[in-house]
Design brief:
heterodimer, A: 212 residues, alpha+beta, seven-stranded mixed β-sheet, 5 helices, elongated, B: 132 residues, mainly alpha, two-stranded antiparallel sheet
Chain lengths: 212, 132
């Protein structure tokens, strides 16, 4: 065993280690999946895309899909007088809001499912009490059927139920949507650990879509 | 024989340790989590301007006697807590009994008021009879 062969052996080892780490890094950067039903049309996979919507937010601004052009948004369904899970979900939405305070490419969208009581003025007061900026977090209302229709589109359960506390039955899901209107991740808004994972996914999607 | 004695000593130590760790107001904590924490949050800190805190709240000190009525019948209208106004209705918990209310109050006492006062179900019953 000469010194030269020892040298080439160590070079080889370094190369192997380098390649291995390079591969694992590649794996980590895998992009987030597109969620929802998909179909194959003429050999191309067509993914579930969030459909057109039109709502009004707490500042009477018209909120449509184009409002979130080149942005990501997280969305949920709630109502201001909700006595059950909403406050917990709002606390988790606030975590997202605070964590990405410096990031203009992330916006929050909360749909009220109680169109009768949650007027624009009520939503405005609610946003003020939560101390959030209307440009970064939109609380919206609109036509009742349209709201429930959109909940379906985001795979969120929302329905009127006179037997449920507050008169509505709904899930506390928080949905992450990308700039191309695809659903990329979601969390259970009543479970802080589930939201921990969503925070990582948001960061990943922000990195993925940076410079687009 | 000595082996048995040692096993007994060990058992007593472990048992004593577990018994000391036990939160004496476990039912109070569970009820708090089930009924109160959704709005007042786990640490009793409340949520911004929507729901008032319980921990460190002057309102709690001033209205402690009325707590059984507030827990069972809820609260409506504006209240001021630590100088800040809140106006979100608090729901009634109609099916809660005196023992459960006493457990919640004792949990709150221990957790956020640092007082040793013990609230008995009998006291809760008396206060409930005075609710308006």
């Amino acid at each position: 065993m000469t010194q030269r062969s020892l040298f080439s052996l160590s070079c080889f080892c370094v190369l192997v280690v380098f390649l291995l780490t390079a591969c694992t890094q590649e794996e980590k950067q895998d992009s987030l999946p597109i969620l929802g039903f998909r179909e194959v049309v003429n050999g191309d996979t067509v993914y579930h895309k969030i459909k057109d919507f039109e709502f009004v937010d707490q500042d009477s601004n018209r909120i449509v899909n184009a409002t979130f052009k080149d942005k990501l948004y997280v969305t949920d369904f709630f109502f201001t007088s909700c006595p059950t899970i909403c406050p917990k979900v709002k606390q988790q939405m606030l975590r997202i809001y605070d964590k990405f305070a410096e990031e203009d490419r992330l916006v929050l969208l909360s749909h009220s499912i109680d169109v009768r009581r949650d007027t624009v003025a009520t939503l405005k007061r609610f946003a003020q009490k939560l101390e959030v900026d209307g440009k970064r977090w939109h609380f919206v209302t609109g036509e009742e059927d349209h709201i429930y229709d959109m909940a379906d589109d985001y795979f969120v359960v929302a329905q009127k139920d006179p037997n449920a506390p507050g008169g509505f039955d709904h899930s506390g899901k928080i949905i992450l949507v990308d700039p191309d209107r695809y659903v990329r991740s979601f969390a259970d808004g009543t479970d802080p650990e589930s939201v921990d994972r969503l925070l990582l996914d948001i960061q990943q999607l922000l990195d993925e879509t940076a410079g687009q | 024989m000595t082996k048995c004695a040692w096993a007994c000593v060990l058992f007593v130590i472990i048992f004593g340790y577990i018994a000391c760790q036990e939160n004496p107001y476990r039912q109070g904590k569970n009820l708090y989590t089930a009924y109160c924490a959704t709005c007042h949050m786990e640490e009793g800190q409340g949520l911004k301007g929507l729901f008032p805190p319980i921990a460190g709240a002057d309102y709690l000190e001033e209205h402690f006697e009325e707590l059984p009525c507030i827990i069972r019948y809820g609260l409506e209208g504006e209240i001021v807590v630590n100088g800040r106004s809140y106006n979100q209705p608090m729901l009634a918990i109609k099916n809660i009994n005196e023992i459960e209310i006493a457990n919640i109050m004792n949990f709150i006492n221990r957790e956020w008021r640092n007082v040793d006062d013990f609230v008995s179900p009998e006291q809760v019953r008396q206060q409930l009879s005075k609710c308006q």
